[in-house]
Write a structure and sequence with these properties.
Blueprint (H helix, E strand, L loop, with lengths): L6 E4 L2 E5 L10 E4 L2 H9 L6 H18 L5 H15 L4 H11 L7 H23 L6 E6 L14 H10 L3 E7 L6 H13 L3 E4 L4 H4 L5 E4 L3 E3 L4 E4 L2 H11 L3 E4 L5 E2 L16 H4 E2 L2 E2 L12 E4 L6 E4 L2 E3 L3 H10 L1
Parallel strand pairs: 4-5, 4-7, 5-6, 7-10, 8-11, 10-15
Antiparallel strand pairs: 1-2, 2-3, 8-9, 9-14, 12-13, 15-16
Helix pairs in contact: 1-2, 1-3, 2-3, 2-4, 2-5, 3-4, 5-6
């Protein structure tokens, strides 16, 4: 399968596919400083929890390459704090940065970043192979945001399960929510499904209630999963979970082990990023609301564990009771 290459490290610089330019242009950013990587993460030029973590890891590595010995520790500490602040909800970001900061020697940082990327790629493959088992031979699937190769190394997470099912010859069809306000579903998921030749319909987010009865299951990703199973994901995910519960359709959260955060006991402990009101007041470059209009623009919402059928992870499928079974599966 022709998967897009999102991140490339080359000789002290990081090349990132600018996802804000998709689907019209495939352009790469050339970044040489951690501050530039943090900005790219903040602006969603690179996105998806696993890819954010990988990009941040490389951000630490390229910063180390440019710092003199006497400023290495202080400079990397500042860089780490800057990267973690870029998007506070995605736990993969802080997880990857903290892991990089535990590496002592400058020359091993690039190796560690590459290892993180390879591990996430392996997790995506494991997720796809385990998740495909819940997809019927003929299935209509509802999803939101983008959870494919543009969001995670390899096939991705939730969309990776769809692509694996398609590769295995299952007759899958997707309803993809456009995902306002930045249209990750319309711009990115549609882009990936077209390339993979998977049948799909793009829908406005508010049409989800109109199609839920036609769907066999809902597959979504995650940016942070609390110890009790409460899950933060792109805003609109909770809406799909409520619809699935009402329609008695299975609702699966698909994520690697690195997305589980046992420091968060429940969803109430998850910090939800709130973004600029201009993302809502404007549709691309076109202003659609009065400039003074007040806006509430959370990037994520939290789906309560009680609405989730199961978690599809690289370690296996986790069913309720989640508080016990998540720890049992991930930590033995």
């Amino acid at each position: 399968m022709n998967l897009p290459r999102v991140v490339r490290y080359e000789d002290g610089k990081l090349l990132l596919l600018d996802q804000t330019q998709l689907p019209h242009h495939e352009r790469f950013l050339c970044l040489r400083r951690a501050a530039e990587v943090a900005r790219a993460i903040k602006l969603l030029q690179v996105r998806g929890a696993p890819w954010i973590g990988v990009a941040a890891a490389y951000g630490v590595a390229i910063e180390a390459q440019r710092l003199p010995d006497d400023k290495l520790i202080s400079g990397l500490t500042r860089a780490a704090q800057m990267l973690i602040r870029a998007r506070p909800t995605a736990v993969n970001l802080s997880w990857a940065v903290k892991r990089m900061m535990s590496v002592e020697l400058r020359r091993t940082l690039v190796v560690e970043a590459k290892t993180i990327e390879q591990e996430e790629r392996a997790r995506s493959q494991a997720i796809a192979l385990k998740g495909v088992k819940v997809v019927p031979q003929k299935a209509v699937i509802l999803t939101i945001c983008n959870t494919g190769a543009l969001a995670a190394p390899g096939l991705g997470t939730a969309l990776g399960v769809v692509l694996q099912a398609h590769q295995e010859g299952k007759r899958v069809e997707v309803y993809a929510c456009e995902t306002r306000p930045l249209l990750q579903g319309a711009r990115l998921t549609a882009f990936e499904l077209l390339r993979a030749r998977v049948p799909f319909y793009l829908i406005v987010d508010s049409a989800a209630a109109s199609v839920i009865e036609r769907c066999d299951l809902v597959l979504v990703g995650a940016d942070r999963i609390a110890a009790n199973g409460d899950t933060a994901n792109k805003v609109g995910t909770k809406m799909l979970a409520i619809l699935a519960k009402e329609a008695k359709k299975p609702f699966y959260v698909v994520a690697p082990a690195s997305t589980f955060d046992f420091q968060c006991r429940t969803g109430a402990d998850i910090v939800i990023e709130e973004r600029s009101g201009d993302e809502v007041r404007r549709f691309g470059r076109c202003q659609v609301a009065p400039e003074p209009a007040p806006v509430f623009n959370p990037a994520f919402d939290v789906t309560p564990a009680r609405l989730i059928t199961a978690f599809i992870t690289d370690a296996g499928i986790v069913k309720p009771p989640f508080k016990r079974n998540i720890r049992r599966l991930l930590f033995g």
